[in-house]
Amino acid sequence: QVQLVESGGGLVEAGGSLRLSCAASGLTFSRYAVGWYRQAPGKEREFVATISRSAVTSYSDSVKGRFSISRDNAQNSVYLQMNSLKPEDTAVYYCAADRQTVITAPFYWGQGTQVTVSS
């Protein structure tokens, strides 16, 4: 079955950096759009970034210029480099995959990894 496993979360001070990874299995990774969502306490899950099958990227306005998404089809992995982190970036970050787009209702989800940014 399809599995998406996130790693790389943790506690970081404001202004710091983290790199999230998501390892996929059970699917032909290169045929999927992949991306990241996040959910802060008491808030709805929100889109963060996506990279298409042809490596076109898109970001939410709140992270544009600070976060960078990339993929390695040989490693069946997608990454999220997060720089200049702010306390409001604190959330559980989820990896997502879909044959078409992850911007609306991705079909597959990971279990999430916690990112906490201290002020």
Explained architecture:
The chain is mainly beta and 119 residues long. The protein contains no helices and eleven strands. The strands form two sheets. Strands 2, 4, 5, 6, 9, 10 and 11 form a seven-stranded mixed β-sheet that branches. It has a four-stranded antiparallel β-sheet with strand order 1-3-8-7, with no helix packed on it. A hairpin with a 5-residue loop joins strand 5 and strand 6. The chain starts with a strand and ends with a strand.
Short description:
This protein has no helices and 11 strands. It is an all-beta fold.
Topology:
Blueprint: E1 3-7, E2 10-13, E3 18-25, E4 33-39, E5 46-51, E6 57-59, E7 67-72, E8 77-82, E9 91-98, E10 108-109, E11 113-118
Biggest β-sheet description = 7 strands, mixed
In the predicted model, the low-confidence regions spanning at least 5 consecutive residues are: none
| Helix/strand structural class | mainly beta
Number of strands: 11
What is the averaged pLDDT score?
Answer: 97
Q: How far apart, in Å, are the first and last alpha carbons?
A: 40 Å
Offer a few descriptive terms:
119 residues; mainly beta; seven-stranded mixed β-sheet; four-stranded antiparallel β-sheet
